[in-house]
From TrEMBL:
Domain of life of the organism encoding this protein: Bacteria
Domain named LexA repressor DNA-binding: residues: 2-61
Source species of the chain: Sphingomonas hengshuiensis
A GO BP annotation: proteolysis
Single GO MF descriptor: serine-type endopeptidase activity
Designated name of the protein: LexA repressor DNA-binding domain-containing protein
Length: 167
């Protein structure tokens, strides 16, 4: 993979993840610093390598194969985050020792098990209890099993907040 292809793929992944839709070829060209035909060749090469899927005739007709993160293997997701130098909020800072809120796009300080006060209040009571129980288990017994259990509920809450209660 060339540096331009890597930069374009990272940009497409980030745009789809954060905005919920793919960038246009013009936006990719501007981000990578190439012409639109150059961006088209990069996207076609990434599609040929299996990194992207194209929907012909659509302005934003680029998709990531297997882009539903609920079906992505956790090890593969962690490997991709490590490649980018990023860590999940709870794993990077601990469950409740400050840092940013775990809700997508929120940069408020996390005060309760990885979430700010605003988002904490939006979590349904049953899910909240489950998150608190797993956070307590993780703090009392920091094992792979307790971390996996906590991260499973944490990611479910994060996805729920992202899809239902955008701030």
């Amino acid at each position: 993979m060339t540096p331009n292809q890597s930069q374009a793929l990272d940009f497409v992944r980030e745009r789809i993840t954060k905005a919920g839709f793919a960038p246009t070829l013009k936006e990719i060209a501007e981000q990578v610093g190439v012409s639109e035909p150059g961006a088209r060749r990069i996207v076609e090469a990434l599609a040929a390598q299996g990194y992207l899927q194209r929907k012909p005739g659509m302005t934003r007709g680029i998709e990531l194969p297997g882009s539903d993160l609920r079906v992505v293997d956790s090890a593969a997701l962690c490997a991709e985050l490590k490649r980018r130098g990023e860590w999940p909020v709870a794993e990077r800072r601990g469950a409740s020792d400050g840092g940013d809120c775990g809700a997508f796009g929120c940069r408020d300080a996390a005060v309760h098990d990885g979430f700010c006060g605003h988002h904490w209040g939006l979590i349904p009571p049953g899910v909240l209890r489950s998150l608190q129980e797993r956070a307590r288990w993780l703090h009392e017994e920091p094992t792979i099993a307790s971390r996996r259990a906590y991260m499973q509920v944490y990611q479910m809450v994060r996805d729920m907040l992202h899809s239902t209660w955008r701030r």
